[in-house]
Specification:
It contains 13 helices and 16 strands. It is an alpha+beta fold. Among the domains are: 68 residues, no CATH class; 62 residues, no CATH class; 211 residues, Ribonuclease H-like superfamily/Ribonuclease H (Nucleotidyltransferase, domain 5). The strands form 5 sheets. A 5-stranded mixed β-sheet has the order 12-11-10-13-14, sandwiched between helices. A 3-stranded antiparallel β-sheet has the order 1-6-5, with no helix packed on it. It has a 3-stranded antiparallel β-sheet with strand order 2-3-4, with no helix packed on it. Helix 5 packs across helix 9 and helix 6 packs across helix 13. It is extended, with a radius of gyration of 38 Å.
């Protein structure tokens, strides 16, 4: 029996193994079929893709031929960009000043008198931990939180006087305290309605007129519809006022903090004289050499062995001396100013150099270096400009690009100092139809000036701190205004030296030596 059982088990094992082999063969054949089908699908997809590409190519060709036919027939119309069709939306504009009107205080109820004349139960809403602004009182009867409950998602309601009011932490109307302690609110200068608070920015608060019958809104809407045929959500039609948070005194504090340090005593030359000092400044500034190259040039040409750190110390001292000349009021300044900004690197981070350039006398009249490209920096550089005039100008003509900080800062300066400022702007580097040609020429000049400055900045590969950037620009500004030749002649004379010596034939280091000696004597006296 055991032999028969073993034989039977062997037969069953053989049958089982044969069935497994058959199943494996079937699986392999199915895999081959699937692989074949996959290859066929891929080939078909490639054919479909190539057909689509050929169809798109034919469509483009047909469109080009159709446009050529339309151009020959004179019926071709240039396509317009519907997303930027509104010039009011594209270009930033500052509306005129808002009207400040006093708040008329209305008589309010006394919640204690209301409680004395009736029976009221405390509200239980204030017991909740998420009850908003619990310190707020009712603006109508001065009741406290015990008598308030939530009326809507943004409002509370008083149980005593049934007054509803907004429970937001921030006030929706900006209130300013004047010297006579009179509260004022902003009103639209066209419809005299109170402006609504929209958003708060770092330098200003934005208010908007929501009166749909405002003449400003109606006129803007009619002009857009007349020009473009329809009105879209991005079109600016409401009057907008921006209340500057920064005061004029804050801007003067920014100016004081950005000044270059003036030395308290004369520079003592322990090893070298002022002539060598002037040669170092000449190599560094006029010839645009680095500190190490300047030290190498002094060694090779004059046999004077100094280090690059000594060159850096000389440059800081020279810029501190020259600062008094760059910032002093002068007669060589007109009322035609063009402004622009460029960036530099300080510790690997972008900082911005604001430059104001005089079109008539072709010199730099003011500059400012800031961490941010914002309203405060723009206001500072223009206040520095006003300080350069011996007498406050009555009118200024300012040209710039369409950066939004310029019109806001100029409106702020005009309001605070009482100066009439006429501002024109152009967009980008390309010439556009309808723009002011004089402003475009001025913009091209100051862009060229930026490239000249970047040429001397490039050797530094960035600065270690903002003080070093200011020292470097002071030197370059003095070079550009007084030590630069154009058509073989110096742009400005050194008439502030008050000397009788003819300095027109002196070489550049000697001119620097005269300037430094003059400043040192002036500081010591």
């Amino acid at each position: 029996m055991s032999i028969i059982a073993n034989f039977t088990n062997n037969i069953q094992d053989l049958i089982y193994s044969n069935s497994i082999l058959n199943l494996n063969n079937q699986i392999n054949s199915l895999k081959d079929i699937v692989m074949h089908k996959t290859n066929l699908i891929k080939e078909l997809e490639d054919k479909v893709t190539s057909i689509k590409k050929s169809l798109n190519y034919q469509k483009r060709k047909n469109k080009e031929l159709s446009n050529q036919i339309k151009k020959l027939n004179g019926t071709y119309v240039e396509p317009t960009d519907e997303t930027s069709r509104s010039p009011v939306y594209e270009y930033f504009k500052v509306d005129k000043e808002a009207i400040k009107t006093p708040i008329v205080s209305t008589p309010s109820l006394n919640y204690k008198e209301i409680l004395a004349n009736g029976k009221f139960k405390h509200s239980k809403a204030y017991l909740k931990p998420n009850f908003p602004n619990p310190d707020q009182i009712c603006p109508n009867c001065s009741s406290t939180k015990e008598w308030h409950y939530l009326h809507t998602k943004t409002q509370k309601r008083c149980k005593l006087c049934l007054k509803t009011f907004i429970f937001s932490e921030s006030q929706k109307i900006k209130i300013s305290d004047l010297s006579d302690d009179q509260n004022l609110v902003f009103a639209c200068p066209y419809c005299y309605k109170t402006l609504s608070f929209r958003v708060s920015r770092s330098a200003f608060d934005v208010y908007c007129c929501k009166n749909k019958k405002c003449p400003f809104r109606i006129k803007a809407k009619e002009e857009i519809i007349k020009t473009h045929g329809s009105l879209k959500n991005q079109d600016k039609i409401s009057y907008i006022y921006r209340d500057i948070k920064t005061s004029i005194n804050d801007v003067f504090k920014f100016i004081d903090s950005s000044k270059t340090d003036i030395p308290k005593r004369n520079f003592i030359f322990r090893n070298f004289n002022s002539k060598i000092f002037s040669k170092v400044i000449y190599f560094k500034v006029n010839l645009k050499l680095s500190n190490r190259d300047t030290a190498a040039a002094m060694k090779d040409l004059y046999g004077i062995d100094i280090t690059h750190k000594t060159v850096n110390t000389y440059c800081k001292m020279a810029s501190s001396l020259i600062y008094s000349i760059n910032q002093m009021p002068t007669n060589n300044i007109s009322n035609q100013i063009v402004g622009d900004e460029t960036y530099i690197k300080i510790k690997g981070k972008k900082h911005y150099v604001w430059i104001l350039y005089d079109l008539k006398y072709e010199n730099i009249v003011s500059y400012h270096i800031s961490e941010k490209r914002d309203f405060n920096a723009c206001a500072v550089v223009f206040l520095k400009l006003i300080e350069k005039y011996k007498e406050k100008p009555k009118e200024l003509f300012v040209m710039s690009d369409k950066f939004t900080a310029y019109p806001m800062a100029l409106q702020f300066i005009q309001k605070e100092l009482g100066i009439t400022i006429r501002h024109t702007a152009v967009k980008g580097l390309e010439i556009h139809d309808g723009e002011d040609s004089k402003t475009r020429i001025a913009k091209q000049k100051i862009e060229r000036l930026n490239r000249v400055y970047k040429e001397s900045y490039r050797i530094t590969t960035g600065y270690f701190n903002i003080s070093g950037a200011r020292h470097s620009f002071e030197l370059w500004m003095f070079y550009f205004n007084y030590m630069r030749r154009k058509n073989g002649e110096f742009r400005n004379s050194l008439d502030f030296l008050d000397i009788k010596t003819n300095i027109s034939n002196l070489n550049m280091p000697s001119r620097y030596a005269l300037v430094f000696d003059h400043i040192r004597l002036k500081l010591s006296s």
